[in-house]
Amino acid sequence: MNHIDASEHYDESAFTGQTPSLLTIIIDTNPRAWAALNDTLPISKAIANILVFVNAHLAFGNDNQVAVLAAHTNRAVWLYPKSPNPDSVAGPDSQDVEMTGVDGRPSHPELGTSANKYPQFAQIETSILTSLRSLIDNTTTFDLKPTTLISGALTIALSYIHKTSLAFEPSKTSKDPANPTTAPSATLAAPTLHARILVLSVSDSEPAQYIPTMNAVFAASHARIHLDTISLHGMPTFLQQAAFITGGTFLSAASNPRGLLSFLMFGFLADAEARRSLITPTQDSVDFRAACFCHRNVVDTGFVCSICLSIFCEVPENAECLTCGTKLALGSYGAKPAVIPRKKKKKKRINGINGREETGSATGTPVPA
Amino acid sequence: MSANASSLFQYLEQLKGTTFGRLYQQPSTTFAIFRRMLPHLAKTIVMAILYMPTPFLLSDLDIWIKPTAKRDKDQAISILRSLHIVLRDASPTISLNTNFKNSLRLALEGGGDHNSFGVPSTQPPPDDIDLGFLDRYARKKWDDILHFVVNSVGFSTSEKGSSGPKQSVKDLLIGGRLVERSGVTHRITQAGFTFLLQEANAQVWTLLLLWLEAADVASSSGRGLLGGLESVDMLSFFFLLASLEHGRAYETSALTEARKNMLPTLVDFGLVYIPPANPQQFFPTRLATTLTSSDTALRSVSAGFLASGEGGGGGLGDSAGDKSSIILETNFRMYAYVQSPLQIAVLALFSELKFRFRGLVSGHLTRASIRQAVDMGITSDQIISYLASHAHKQMHRVAASTRKPLLPPVVVDQIRLWQLDTERMLATPGFLFKEFDDYKEYVAICNFAEDIGVVVWRNDKKCMFFANKVEQIKGFMKDRKKSNESK
User: Fold this and answer.
1) CB of A265 within 8 Å of any CB in chain B?
2) Three-state secondary structure along B356-394?
3) CATH for A19-96+116-169+192-275?
4) Which Gene3D superfamilies match (chain A) (predicted)?
5) pLDDT at residue A173 above 60?
6) Do B144 and B184 sit in the same domain of this protein?
7) What's the gap in Å between the CA of A216 and the closest CA on chain B?
């Protein structure tokens, strides 16, 4: 039927305009890591670069939106827009009170009075800087952990994106009762909002957060949200996997953190619409190692429950899966394999180029023909 | 790029390179042109090379962009060149116009002392001026202008008490041939219909461009009609207005003398409001601040009109209904949530209205009604684009979720067919290319023209093609000739 009405020749691109895009930036604010980076790229400079990047994103169209989160060592904090429920964790929220202007009129005499700045940009800058300052002021030496709560920030970002995209979706209330197929499920519909998440990472991935992080990543992948990561310091293994899974971009700027702005502008500014016509940087190797469910260790080889696919670094107690409780049969694990001595064949090996590493198994992995 | 940016684009395209150099000195202008005039891919390219320390090779660009998107790329580069954003030399690198680069950087970073985003007034604004007031004021002024145009059709509208636009605005409309003077009364022209059926944003631009052209003519003929205004300065002032914040007071004294002289006319258009008590301040209205918005944003602006209009009286209700109000069904029935006599008069131009309720009119699109419209000089494309740009939110949502065209294809086709009943020709000004040396040359040039989207018609057998723009092709042919000679 769809072919009969020949609707392809209706060029209505002039009426549809460009799809708005929402960029959520998660800034890793781990104090230790930034201290280590201080010689090459102080956080103030990094924030300035990010602000330019945010402005560039907003410059694409005035329905583009931006949200900025800080992933701290022990919590995730909204930098822009302001948290809807100003929690008491962040201490006295004096700046929240002064930001809500007078009777809704956008006249903040204390901000954006400069005639040299686009008003919206000035507003975002002020919001991010005040929130960040209060975050830094509220950080005690007790909080100085080497890793960052990235999964919490990812979760908040995802829920925010979901909330925002609801506003753009066709309303489901006034569905045509005679023709229920007019509103198909969201997976079929064209996206009305391009959303993506950019993580500015400076620390290693915390194995203890493997499960929540991966849950967030799969949720993002399901919602077709790209998860981009730029890593300035450390090795965020899980975020690397996240970029691979969600079709995002992972770049490591650890060799040259000063070039942050160039990395951002070239590698990360293109939204989903532009990426359709661009070749995005790809990763040559992805560290796919997972963390085990029992001790949160990153493992190369481990045990996998045959029922629920939980990963363990050692045989769990009583050989019962910790997640689903299935009694697992270990087969002849630990027994010495009966080795049939083979005739030693002299095989010429061109060093290394032969490809396959010494895996200890005589036959290779079966490959489908 | 949207449909209503095209008239502005045409105006900009015919400007000289030096003019662009001066336009790009202002960060707000640069920012507005970047935001408004460029296609998505072009924006991405500009942003990527904006902070690049070394020149960017065109061959690298080819690597970066997927081969399937070559057409988009060529179009993007072509637009960037014609707006003088990237330099037009034949070097293998692509680099930004220096003024453009510096200004866009300033716009993104803030800083500098160009004051191009408006100097906010330090004095407290009068209490009675809020968003609702400004919206009502702008709507009133603009409706007056539209009424003047519509009334010349002969439909009498019931709204009385509006004095109509100022004589200078009337002269502008007549000078722009939107209406013609025939004896005592005025008669609308085809351009006038085009104007009426546009979105408010496009209408504002049409009028502003008319004003610009009038100023150009005045300055070239040596008459100081508009106080010696210069079109470049006027244009950058428009873009400055677009970057201001709605509902905020700005300092009049910070403007140059020429710009101060522009304010009265802008007041007549309803783009700015100057409180009579305090002429030191001016308020940009929504008409001004949305000058460089994209279409989707305008839809949300109309939502803003609606929100601020609640309790604001009927005057605002119809300004909300002005956008996104028409539901068109496959059975040619049309339901429009409009209140103002003006909107109803516009609808009556091409449809047969059957019922009128409070806040809703319904009618049919019939062969007779479309014929009548076509006889008056309205084209089917104008009707379709009016229906599309005023389509109800729900139509947009359903279209987006089902990946179907916004308007029912059957109706769109039928409107076109009804028009074809009456006229069978479409005139496109342009250039015919023929008598190529060989087929190969023809194919190369024609394909290039096709890629930048200027080919209207081609005939491979006769080795002829017709293009509506020629500058890019000229450059291409020259380059080709040069490279052939060097071989």
Assistant:
1) yes
2) EECCEEEEECCHHHHHHHHHCCCCHHHHHHHHHHCECHH
3) 3.40.50.410
4) von Willebrand factor, type A domain
5) no
6) yes
7) 26
